[in-house]
Structures are given as C-alpha cells and as structure tokens.
Amino acid sequence: MGDLRKKATFLAEAERHFYYQKAKIHFLKQGDRNTKFFHDMVKWNAARNSILAITKADGSIITSVLDIAQEFVDFYTSLLGTEDQTRPVDDGVFHWGLSLTLELASNLCRAVTPAEVKTAVFQISDNKAPGPDGYTSCFLRKTWNIVGDRVCRAVMDFFRSGRMLRQLNHTIIALVPKSEHSPSVADYLPISCGNVIYKVITKIIADRLSPALEQFIDRSQAAFIGGRNITDNIFLAQEMVLQYSRKRISPRCTINVDLRKAFDLVSWTFLSRVLHGYGFPPLFISWIMECVSTTSFSVALNDSLHGLFPGQKGLRQGDPMSPALFLLCMEYFSRLIKRNTSNSDSNFHLKCEKLKITHLLFADDLTLFSRGDLPSIHILMECLQEFRDVSGLAVNTTKSNIFTAGIQDDILDGILAMTEFARVFPLPMAVIEKIHRLCRVFLWNSKRAPVAWEEICHPKEEGGLGIRHIKSWNVALLAGVLWNIYREADTFWAKWVNEVYLRGALPWDWQPKKGDSPLLRRLAEIQDRIIIDFGSTEAAIQHIAEWTDSKGLVTSKAYDYFKPKLPRQP
C-alpha cells in the first residue's frame, strides 16, 4: 500500500508540473496542488492564442485554417526569408568609439569547458517554451547526470568545428497577439522558439559578450547592459523636456524614433561588418554568424506547424544572444551620430553641449535631441537615413513623434515637412474632437466656451488666436499624400497605390471600393471636395500645383485653403 501511495503521489506531482509548464505560469503557490487551476490556464491560453480569422491587406477577412496559415507563412517568408540590399558601412564611423581590447578579445575565443556548458544550461529559465526538439532546460537539469556528458560534447563540438547542424538551428515562430484585437498578421509579435542545445550555445556567446558590451557600448544605450539602468535614460529625457511648455525659451527639439520591426530587419551583412569594425576576433565572429545565418523557420498556428523556409535577415527574439547583437548594431548609429553632429552646422539641445548629448537609446527606441533649427535637425534625419541604408533598420513614421518648443512657425513647418512623422494616416474624427475638447477646456478653464472653436482658429489679424485647426491641418497633410500619388512620387507607397488601385487611371478618376482602407476612402473624400470647390478636375490640378514647390506639396499653403474662413460680409 505504501508503494502505491508513493507512486500515486509521484504521478500527481508529475501531472501538476506537466500542466504547470503548459500553463506558462510564473508563480506557483504551495496550495495549488490540484490541476484544475492549470487546466483552466491551459484552456485560457489556448483560446487566447487561437487565430480563427485574419484581415488581409485588401480588407477581406479569411477564416479558413489553411488560408490563415498560408497568410502567416507568406508574411514571415517576406519579412525574414528575403534579403535586403544594404550599402557598405563607413569604416570611419568606428573611430568614434572604443575598440575591443586584446584581453577581452582573447577571452572571447578561449576553449569552452564542460563547466561553462553546465553553467549556461542551469541559467536558462525553466518556463520557456520548447523549440522543435520539445525539450526545455528544466529537462536537461533534472537529467544532467544522464545527458550532461552528451550535451557538453554536442555544444563543445560546435565551438571546435564552427559548424551548426541545420536541424539544430530550426526555429518555430510562436505568435503572440499585441492586443486583444489583432486583425492582421502584422498585429502579432513573433517569438522564436529554438532548440535547447542551440540556446545553450548562444547563451555561452552572450555571456562572453557581456563584459565587452560594458566596456565599449556608448553610454547613451541603457538596455541589456550590466551596471546600467534604463530608468536613468528616462529621467534624463524627462529633464530635457521639462521646460517645453514655457513660452519664451530658446528653440529646441526632441524626437522619439521607433524602428520598424527592429530585430526582424537587421541585415546579416551589416552585422558581420560591424563586428569586424569593432575588432572582434574572426573566430568569434564566425561562431556568431554561423548561429545567425543557418536558421530556418516554421510558423506555429493553432497547435500545428506550417511552412519551412530559410532565414535571410533578422535577429530572433527569444535567442539569448540577440539583445547583445542588436546593441552592437545600434552602437554603429551612436558613433555615426557622434561624427555627423561634430561639424559646425549642428547645434546641441539646451544643456547638452558640455556632455555632447545628442541621443538616448532604449534598446530599439531612440530619443534624439537637437537645437530647434533646420540644419541641426537635417543632420539627425540624414543619420537615420544613412543608418537605414547600411543596416536595413527603418524609422516607423507612424509611431515616431517630434516635440518642439520656442521655434518660429515658418521654421517649424520646415521641420515637420523634413521629418514627415505622423503624416501617413488620417486622424480619426473622435481623436480630433477629443483634442479640440481638451484645448477648449484648457483655454476656458473648464468653463463654457463663450467663443466657438472655429473662430479661435482664425488668424490673429482676423480676430482669432491663430491656433492650428487640427482637422484642417490633417486634411492639408492628406492632400500632400494625394498629390504624391498623382505625380507618382518615387516612394513605394505612391507606386503601390498606382499599381494596385489606380492601374493606369488618375486618382481624380478613381473611387474606393467597400473593402478599401479608411485612408484611401478619406483621400477620395478630399479629392471630391477639391474638385467640387474648383469646378473641374483640370482646375483642381491647376490650383493644387500652386501649393507645391520642387519638393512637393507645401502643407502650410494647403492649410491656408482648408482652414476655417470668416463668413463673407454681405
């Protein structure tokens, strides 16, 4: 009877741990002995992670399991399985920072020992999702006296030969919804689930990289580096913008930059070039690039794997060494901006010149600081463009913001035109009305407004306060988008609209269909308004051309047309 009781207890404990792992719970109370809690969490996770419908780019909704799977496979094949052409790095940039010391370089290439392998295994978290092999680090630890010798031999063989078995480097893309409502494939965060042996290898590489990062990564970077705290950068950024609400201050500018799908778009060619540029040993670089460049992917969807394609770019989120490699890529940007802002045309943000502060990095988020003048901000934009050309990392303009203070209106218009941040999508009417409501409450101290908001937005010479009318400004920005489509500007967006939607027709002759995007429908409304106002398509084109210069439509000129007007006197 005693043996049966022990066996029952053992099986119950095994069942509990089985569902504990499946439930992905990071806390466990002593009283949670029954598996009902874990059963419920497994069911909740399954329901949350099930993808039953997807909205395609054309607005249509697909519900077929196979069609949904193909949509994700096509998306990630395009994202991770196609190589982007990048320019060579500028070797002069590397001189604007430290190089790897000989001591650190020799330490990187020392022989891997069984003790180092065991340490890496025991440092990997228990509750991470398994890769294609189905094993976790917990399994290796519990069975170390049985499998430890073979694990050590497999890992050490990689570092001796420099060759990675392709099956060992296969990766499952697990899809994590970014919000409760994730209608399209782009609304899911891809997490890479690799084989446990691969994770042990890259954990060793990451641990060896850590002292090097502390030595020569610029102080502007606060994430993923021992001894640094990301809150320090947050505090500094808050100090920078503390006085932005004051009226009479020197011109200044802060730009928050979001990099589009940062980890996924890193060029492998760029990564190899910067590792050589920093002075990493060729042997160590070969280990890294073998791990990075021999991967293949399948997409996990609704408890099944779909697709099989080789990777061509990107760093895998979930790979132990990816954060360190990404910091090394961003270090190139830090050195680039240091060099380019060292010339006489660049002026520092207030209180930044002494410490030469031009930017702060929060892993893949950037905050740039500058004096509020066109030459200085132009240099920052050139740095972002050059960095994109060499690395593949592009700015996500819809999630990037620019904050200014003390800048004259004409200069501000030039800055906004130069950065093009937040200029792609129309603002929803609910957002516009909320902004207007907040402005009214602020202006009239929460009391009933005695003057209509439309009149407040009139120019000062017409009796208003000259406050920009948000809705009209948004319309003016969208008119610029419409003009770019009309003249077939050299942008992928304009070319894509002409190719997919217009198909040889002029935008003035095109009408959106029911499934077209809100942006295209809004553009059609604006073009119809312009044609009605001017009487014909030819007259509309002629008048819009008067709002342009050599670079395109001047937003301020379009705004002068769309802004609220005083009623005509009888």
From TrEMBL:
Species assigned in the record: Sesamum radiatum (Black benniseed)
Regions annotated as coiled coil: none
Name assigned to this protein: Mitochondrial protein
Domain Reverse transcriptase per the UniProt entry, residue ranges: 157-417
Pfam (any one): RVT_1
Signal peptide positions (record): none
